[in-house]
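Hey, I was hoping to borrow your eyes for a little while. No rush at all, and the record is pasted right below.
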Amino acid sequence: MRKRRFAFFLSLLDGIERPLQILDVGGTLQFWELMGSERLEGVTVTLLNLRPEKTTNARFESVAGDALDLGRYLDSSFDVVFSNSVIDHLGPNFSDQQRMANEIKRVGKRYFVQTPNRYFPLEPHFLVPGFQFFPRELRIWLVTHFNVGWYHRIPDREKARKEVESVSLLSEKDLRRLFPGASIYRETVIGLTKSLIAYDGFTTPFAL
C-alpha cells in the first residue's frame, strides 16, 4: 500500500517543473530510499523532525523542528509539503492537528498529507479491533498489562496514558475540516477505507 501511495504521489509530481523543493514533516531518509528516492531527479527534500537525523544523500537535509510551528519558513517556501502518518500523533487536542494543518498549508504551495482512517476496524498502532473506540481507562489498562500492537507493555500508568493519548485518529470528515477544498484519496482494503490522503495544488485531479 505504501508503494502504491508513493506511486500516486510521484504521478502528482510529474506535472511540476524542476528543480523542486519538498518539506517532509515527520519523515525519514529510510522511508524515501525504500520508496525509491532515485526516481526524484531534480528534487531536494527537507526532513523535519523533533530531532535531526544523519543523512547520507546530498539531496536530503535533516532539520529539527516542530510541526505545530514552522515559523522558520516563509509562506510558500516549499513547492510541496509531504507528511505520512504524523498528524494522528499530536495528542488528544484537535486544535493541535489544526495548527499543523494550517502550517502545512502556509509553507507549501501544494500538500500531500496521509493519515489512518479512524473508522477502519483495526486500529493501526495498537492492532486491536475497535481499540480507538474503547474508553480511555480501558485502553490505558490494556497497555499497562499487555504487549499491544507495536507497543511493549508499559507498566508505568502515566507513561501508558501518554502513549494512549498521543494517538488521535481522524475521520474523513475531520480531514476535510483540517484541509477544506482538498481532494481526498481513500486507500482501501477489502472494500474498507484504511487510510486517507488530503492533497491540493497539483494539476492531476485523479487518484490511481
